[in-house]
Amino acid sequence: MGVFSHGKVVTVLQYFTPMFQDYWHTIYPVTRRVDIANDRFSYFYDISSKAMSFSGRFNDQGIYLFPGYDGKDHIHSLEVAQYTLACWLSWRKTDDVYWLNKAMLHSDWLRENQLDDGRWVISHVNPQYSDLGESWCSGLAQGLAISALIRAYEHTSDISYMNAALKAADFLERDFELGGLKRSIAINDVEGFVYEEYPRDKLSGVLNGHISSVLAIFELSHYEERFKISAEENIENLVKILPLYDINYWSLYSLDGVISSGFYHRLVINQLDALSYYDKRFESYKIKFSSYANNLLFATKALINKIGSKI
């Protein structure tokens, strides 16, 4: 794998502008607040293009296949979870039963392929994180799957989908030391936690993946009373740890010092924008990170430092 994910020129261009996009680097628009209030199927930002613009393959059962870094197609539970959520949003956008059927098919896959402890296993090796091994789980996969399964429950009233979402959240909340994904951190006098997207022995702490998990717990708290406290703790914790990702000209992708690409920097801005609807404390960081993205000097510095870290 090269310096940039999937070797895309778009990755470089997005340091300077969101105008250039492709399937792997789509700047998802933040959902209007009135739409979130009026439609329980809506999501914080619109990822429907992840389904509607997919031109890849499906297996014989119609399940989304991820074109892997090894050049082969894989059933990848993280990508399936994201695709499932995107299908739900596509259905609401188009009112086309095609997307409803896709959403239900993939929601069923998530329910049926969840392990007893609530996690989904990923068997595809990411060359950037070869120390994960050949079988791992992800906070991002858990979070996206929770949000997808909530919508399956909302549509069908079938409690099995909600039970799967609750099991997924319980695993997400399990301490890292006990084999879970919630990892305690203490950096520069800041004590908190992250939901690990890549649960390696070494701290990773990917910001966008953590926020996706936070959003899932927040959604689940509207259905299950016991997650209300977790949702509140997540908001306070995120406010506390956000400064760790601020390098005064750009954002860090993760707490092991990896600088965000243009895409992930802009994705986090949109995540913070969505969160600011519920807590205004996130608005200051949305504005701050946006100012970095709009500064040509800062964007160039981030790109140069990103390239330098890969050489």
TrEMBL record:
It holds the Pfam family C5-epim_C. Signal peptide: none annotated. Residues 127-287 form the D-glucuronyl C5-epimerase C-terminal domain. InterPro entries: 6-hairpin_glycosidase_sf, C5-epim_C, C5-epimerase. This is D-glucuronyl C5-epimerase C-terminal domain-containing protein.
